[in-house]
Write a structure and sequence with these properties.
The termini are far apart. The chain is of the alpha/beta class and 269 residues long. The strands form 3 sheets. A 7-stranded mixed beta sheet has the order 5-6-4-2-7-11-10, sandwiched between helices. It contains 9 helices and 11 strands.
Length: 269
């Protein structure tokens, strides 16, 4: 027989635990989340979004990654791969990215709900978009150039400059988007060519390619572990989830120095 949940999580209890962790009114948050890790939440993802809004208050902003893995070149897909004879047809047939309609993929229920929340603003990048809700949402989300997925001119770069905090709710450094900004600060980061389907006034959709920094998160757990040793990370419990919070800009600065010392980079061949 299934057992009853150990504790009940509500909007009030989650907001109080976020405050206890260190979330303050007026904060700008970049949230990575696992709804399942939080335990039994009355109201599910809607309750979590409400609790985040409550914790930052009317002058704060909640931001989430709303990436779209399907908006990428099928020649690079590996989870799962698709036959080579499909590639051209996928490029022709992929619906163009639309901030209002295109769903997130592999981001979880909380980001997918927040991007559709009344007043939310989503950035324009077809592959690595973000969505934000709050007073700084529009300033943070626009512009988002095609050839700057997660660099200085992306929402991530502006989050760093505006002193945002990163909040992990049941997630870890494997998916720490903030560390990607460090890759753009390395003098010899490799580049790659990527593709996506974008709106085209004449034909409805067009497949475009662009060159950008090659993203690589393989060493992110090592960077995160070393960063925690600096004492910059606050660790606690929100619901049943292990939560971590830290300053985004400080994490990026640390990751940049770590990569300069530990990564061997160069152009992709």
């Amino acid at each position: 027989m299934p057992t009853a949940p150990a504790t009940l999580q509500t909007r009030t209890s989650l907001a109080a635990e976020l405050t206890h962790l260190g979330v303050a009114p007026g904060d700008i948050l970049l949230v990575h989340s696992s709804l399942r890790a939080l335990g039994w939440v009355c109201g599910g993802q809607e309750t979590v979004v409400q609790a985040l809004i409550d914790a930052v208050g009317p002058h704060g902003t909640v931001t989430v990654p709303t990436q779209c893995g399907e908006q990428s070149d099928p020649a690079r897909w590996g989870n799962p791969p698709v036959p080579q004879e499909w590639w051209d047809e996928i490029r022709r047939s992929m619906p163009p990215y639309d901030p209002d309609r295109t769903p997130t993929t592999f981001m979880g229920r909380i980001p997918e709900l927040l991007r559709t929340w009344p007043g939310a603003v989503r950035s324009d990048h077809p592959q690595t978009s973000f969505a934000a809700l709050g007073v700084d949402a529009r300033e943070l989300m626009h512009p988002h150039p095609l050839s700057c997925r997660l660099g200085e001119e992306s929402p991530l770069g502006r989050l760093a400059r505006m002193q945002a905090k990163v909040l992990f709710l049941g997630t870890d450094y494997n998916t720490c988007t903030a560390f990607h900004l460090a890759e753009y600060r390395l003098p010899t980061s490799p580049t790659e060519t990527e593709g996506a389907s974008v709106p085209d006034p004449e034909h409805g959709a067009a497949w475009v390619t662009y060159t950008d920094i090659a993203l690589n998160e393989e060493d992110f757990p090592h960077i995160g572990s070393a960063f925690e040793e600096t004492g910059a990370v606050t660790i606690g419990r929100v619901g049943q989830a292990l939560a971590r919070m830290f300053p985004l800009a400080e994490a990026v600065d640390f990751a940049t120095e770590w990569m300069l010392s530990n990564r061997v980079t160069g152009p992709i061949t």
